[in-house]
Amino acid sequence: MINLAQKIEEAIRQASIGAIDFSTLRGNVNLGDLVKALTVDKNDYEQSVLYEIPNEHSHAFNVLTSSGDMDSLVMFSQRHGLMCSESDARTLDAAILLYFQSQFDIAQTIADRVYANRLRMYIYPKILRDIQENAYREKLKETAKRPRNKHYIDAINIARATWEKYPAASKNGMCQKLHEHFKGQVSSDTLDRWIKAAKIKPRVKSKATSFSLVVLEGA
After folding, report:
1. Looking at 87-96, 144-153, 159-168, 189-198, which range is the least confident one?
2. Cα separation, 195 vs 181, whole angstroms
């Protein structure tokens, strides 16, 4: 599981590098106005909002960006975009300021982290769902493999608990005592098959020893 998480994180890191391209801002933004809007004049403006544009709308978004029609671009983002967290928006503000102060590498590193966080929001819940679904399917398979007899689970639990206390108890003796415990409703041969399939007998040499079944509550 650790190796899987490491591989996922590395894939996210690689996918995030340069995914947010600050170079597209050149020529479209007045540096002085931008710096003032994000710093000394920020109280004169609404807080900046960060939107993620889904792939199906990315081409139309790029066309609007190239046109320089900011009003249409804002409306388009509000209609089709996914609003990011305020934390991501403030972090990207800082990255943009650093970029326009020629701190290109630092700005890009910060932007890459914002993009990576967005990827994690999509990837990890999906992975968790897949793990849960796989675990559920495996549980169904395991349940389907179990014998249908109503005493199966109790028999295995009693045998396991008894062997924990009496590891040298013989399998034949265990089957006989379980047969008696269930008042003959399960044959010794059937109990023998269940125990073999469950692989619960300790790997110690059996010897003649007296023991009593460890019966769990409700069994």
Report:
1. 144-153
2. 16
Say how many C-beta atoms besides its own lie within 10 A of residue 52's C-beta: 14
Separation of alpha carbons 115 and 80, rounded Å? 18
Q: How buried is 8 (Cβ within 10 angstroms: 0-12 exposed, 13-18 middle, 19+ buried)?
A: middle
Gap between the Cα atoms of 211 and 162, Å rounded? 8
User: Closest Cα to residue 147, out of 201, 184, 197?
Assistant: 197
> Pairing state of beta strands 82-83 and 51-52?
antiparallel
Burial class of 73 by CB neighbour count within 10 A (0 to 12, 13 to 18, 19+): middle
For 51, the enclosing helix (H) or strand (E) is: strand 51-52
Residue 201 CA neighbour count, 13 Å, CB half:
19
List the beta bridge partners of residue 83.
51
- If we measure between CA atoms, which residue out of 211, 118, 115 comes closest to residue 163? 211
Is residue 183 classed as helix, strand or coil in its secondary structure? coil
Verdict on whether the full-model pTM lies above 0.70: no
